[in-house]
Protein: Probable E3 ubiquitin-protein ligase HECTD2
Amino acid sequence: GLEEGAKNQFSTFSNFITTINQKKEGIGNRNSPTQLVIPNIKNGRDHPPLCLDVRQKQRMSMDALPQELKAPIPPEPSLPIRTKTVKDFQDDMEKSKASGDWKAVHNFYSTTFDSFLEINAAFKKDTNSPFNTIEDSEIDAKFVNVVYDALLNTPQDVQKSVLKGIINGLLQEWTGPRTKDDLRAYCILLQNPQFSNTSTYVIYAHLLRQIAALTEADHHFLVHWSKKISQKRFKQVVDRLLQFISLRLFPAKPEEFPPMVKCTWWIPSATKVLALFNAANSLISPPIISYTDFYNSTLDHIDLMEEYHNWQCYGNSHRFSFCQYPFIISIAAKKVIIQRDSEQQMISIARQSLVDKVSRRQKPDMNMLFLNVKVRRTHLVSDSLDELARKKADLKKKLKVTFVGEAGLDMGGLTKEWFLLLIRQIFHPDYGMFTYHKDSQCHWFSSFKCDNYSEFRLVGALMGLAVYNSITLDIRFPPCCYKKLLSPPIVPCDHNTLVGICGVTLDDLFQIMPELAHGLSELLSYEGNVEEDFYSTFQVFQEEFGVIKSYNLKPNGDKIPVTNRNRKEYVQLYVDFLLNRSIYKQFAAFYYGFHSVCASYALLLLRPEEVEILVCGSPELDMSALQRSTQYEGYQKTDLTIRYFWDVVLGFSLDLQKKLLHFATGSDRVPVGGMADLNFKISRSETSTNWLPVAHTCFNQLCLPPYKNKKELRQKLIIGISNAEGFGLE
Structure:
C-alpha cells in the first residue's frame, strides 16, 4: 500500500476535498446522507429496491430482478481513442523496472484515471459498441486486474497521480442521469487496492457516497455487473468495505480521520454499497462467497440493543441503523440481540404476573415467575403437550422442568434433558410424525392426514423455547424447513393468510429426497418424447397406511399429459406439492407453535441458515478448542490426571466425544459462539477413584476423581458417559 511518505503528501489534496464538500452542499444536498439509508419505494414496481428495510412484511427475492431495465439511458459521450493493450502495458512495466525510468507507466496511470471518460477509454472492451444488456458491463476485467495488481509496485508519484485523477473525476458536476460509462467507472474504481490504506479513506468515502446516492435503476446495473467480478476480487472489495466501516467505528489512530460529527455519512454510505454486493452475491447459486463473509465482527462490540431499539422505533426512516442491513451483523451478535430481547420479554411477562397477584391481594409465589413444566418420563410427550397447552400465557417466562419422582433441581440441566428426550421420542420413526430420509440424513414432515395436529404445534413450541432459553437441539431438518419457518417472519394478523409457504425449487428437494429430485432432473433434460416415453399426467401418487392415493397437481391434472413443453411446470408443481401443499396443515401448526414463543421483530434479522444454527447449534466438534478454553478447579492443566484426560478424550471417536459433551453439558451440540461459550469446567472430586465421574450439567461442570493411570480413567469415563440418563441429588 501507500507508504508513510504518501500520507504526508495527502495534505496537498486538502483543497480538493474541501471543494468536494462545497460542491456537495451546492447541488441541493442531492447526495445528503439522509437519502442513503432506505430508498423511496412508492414507484418501485419496475425496479424493486435492493436495500429494503427488513421490517417490511414482504421479502424481496433477488431472483426477481428484471433482466432488462426500461429506465431512460442517457446518450454516452464519445470516448477518447486509447489503443494500449495488456501486452503493451506489461512490456512498459518490465522496461520501467529494468531501467528505473517510469515515465511511460506514469503517463498511462495519470491519463487513464484522470476522468471517467478516460477510464472507459482504457478499460471498455469496445468503445464504439452501444449499451444493450444489464448482464454485460463491457469491462475488460483482465486489463483492470493487471493494472491494479501492478499499481502498488509503482513509485509513490505514480500512485499519487492515480488518486489525484480519481479526485478530479469525483469533482465533476453531475447534471441529469448518469451514463453507463459513469457506472462502469464506478465499478472499476471500487476495485482499486489503494483504498485498503487508511490515508485514502477521505477519497474512498466520497466515492462511496456518490455510488450510494445513485438511483435504484443504476444500482441494479451495478449489482448485475458486480456478480461478474471474480471471486478473489469480489472478496477483496467486500473486505475493503468491512475494514472501512470497522476503522471508522474504532480508528487505531483517530487523528487520521475527520471528526465523526463531520462525517456521519461515511458508515451509511459504505454499508449501502456493501448491500449492493450482498445483493449481487444472492443472485448467484451457489453464491460467489459465503454469506458469513459479509459479517463484521467489529459490530459485536457496539451497543447492539441501541441499534435494535433505534430500528424498532424509527423503522423505515432516514435514521441509520445496522439492523436495516442485517447481513452485516454476525450470528453471534444476532444471538445477543435475540437473547436480550427475550430476557426483556420474560421480565415484562413475569412483572405483569407479579402485579396481577399483588393487585388481587394474593401472596406472591416465586414459581409464578417461571414456566413450570412437570412431566413423567413414562408419559413424556402427552404430559408435555398438556403442560404447554394449559400454560400458553406463560410460554415467555423462564423455563423450569421437573421430572415426577426425581429429586433433581432444575438449574438448567433438567431443561436440557427434557428437550433431548422429548425430541428423541417425537422424531422416532415409529411415532409417525416425521419421516427420516437416509440418503439426506434429515427428517421431513409426514404427509399423512390426521384429526389433530397439536403435536406438530408442540414441536414448533419446543424449537421456540429452545431459542428463547438458549438451548441447542439435535434436530435434523433440511434448510428448506427454516426458509418456510420465516415465511412470513412475523405472524400475520389475518388468520386466513397462508403461512409456511415459500418458493421452493428442485435444489430444495435435492436436500430432502435426492433420489426423487435426480429423477425429476433427468425428466427435465430428457431428449426424447416425454409424453410417449413416460406416459405421465399432472398427478402425484402417495401411499398412506397401505392405500395408494392420487392427487391432481392442477385442476383436471389426471387428464393432462406431461410433455416436453410443459414438463418444467410439472416438476415445479410436483416440488411445490411435496414441500408445501401436501404438508400444509402439519407445517402451519409447527409454524404457529414456534412463533407462539419466539414472536419478535428480531427474527426479521435472521437468514434461514442462521435460524438453524440458533436452534441446533453446530455439529462440528473441536475438542482441541474445548481443551484451550477449559477452566479448572482443584486441578492445574499440567496435572497428570488432566493430561491423561485430554489424551483419552482427543483419542475418542466422534460418537464418544458427543457422549462426553452430552454428559457434561446436557447437549452434544456446539453453541453459536463455539466451544469457548460452553464455559466448561473440570473440578477435582475428592471421592474414591473407584467412583465414576459426575457431571453438573447446569454449570457445564465435570467432577473428575484423581485416577491413578490413563487406562483406569478411560474405562471409568466411558462407563460414565455411556450411562448418563437421569438426575439425583448428593
Observations:
- The domain at 617-723 is CATH 3.30.2410.10 (Hect, E3 ligase catalytic fold).
- Confidence is low (pLDDT under 50) at residues 1-71.
- The chain is about 45% helix and 5% strand.
- The longest strand covers residues 370-375.
